[in-house]
């Protein structure tokens, strides 16, 4: 007879030094212990994040250490730990930076969708994102590192949802009769597909331009169907 005893939950390494016990029932959002409030501490905080990006790109997340980050940033290790409990919290902050930059750029295009030229906007914006992934290899390394533990994945999902809410708002004129919950789902699908395909496009041996072209086809087909369905609903 098989034992009904379940194996104990494996500890989430991202929660080391974040909480006082490894018996945590659910993943947690990983946040810095504190954010800088003065210019001097802001410079140290930014230096640590900049050094983290460089190190992550050079050695990957497995070999990434807080000690090396502090050394490269010329900051005492104790200062690093005042801000970040461990390397998982650092990479989550880098991920927030990346998502925030995309949200800020989307703000510049708010109101452009829909126009008769919305497909051109889509092409241009995907090209812009693709350029970011080729010019800044740390974006892919951050994305990969975010897949490493339950808590990093849960934290990344929060940033994805925030971006999806912005996209869902922008999709409203394109899909005027589509309810909010459906637009949120559509936006979350788009965010997930875009990030997955961008990281696929920069894998070793992958034809980047061809992968980006396929991403554009996927997005255009998806949105054209969504627009057609919403317009048809409006006419009924």
From TrEMBL:
<feature type="DNA-binding region" description="H-T-H motif">
    <location>
        <begin position="65"/>
        <end position="84"/>
    </location>
</feature>
<protein>
    <submittedName>
        <fullName>TetR/AcrR family transcriptional regulator</fullName>
    </submittedName>
</protein>
<dbReference type="InterPro" id="IPR001647">
    <property type="entry name" value="HTH_TetR"/>
</dbReference>
<dbReference type="InterPro" id="IPR050109">
    <property type="entry name" value="HTH-type_TetR-like_transc_reg"/>
</dbReference>
<feature type="domain" description="HTH tetR-type">
    <location>
        <begin position="42"/>
        <end position="102"/>
    </location>
</feature>
<dbReference type="Pfam" id="PF17928">
    <property type="entry name" value="TetR_C_22"/>
</dbReference>
<dbReference type="Pfam" id="PF00440">
    <property type="entry name" value="TetR_N"/>
</dbReference>
<dbReference type="InterPro" id="IPR041674">
    <property type="entry name" value="TetR_C_22"/>
</dbReference>
<dbReference type="InterPro" id="IPR009057">
    <property type="entry name" value="Homeodomain-like_sf"/>
</dbReference>
<keyword id="KW-0238">DNA-binding</keyword>
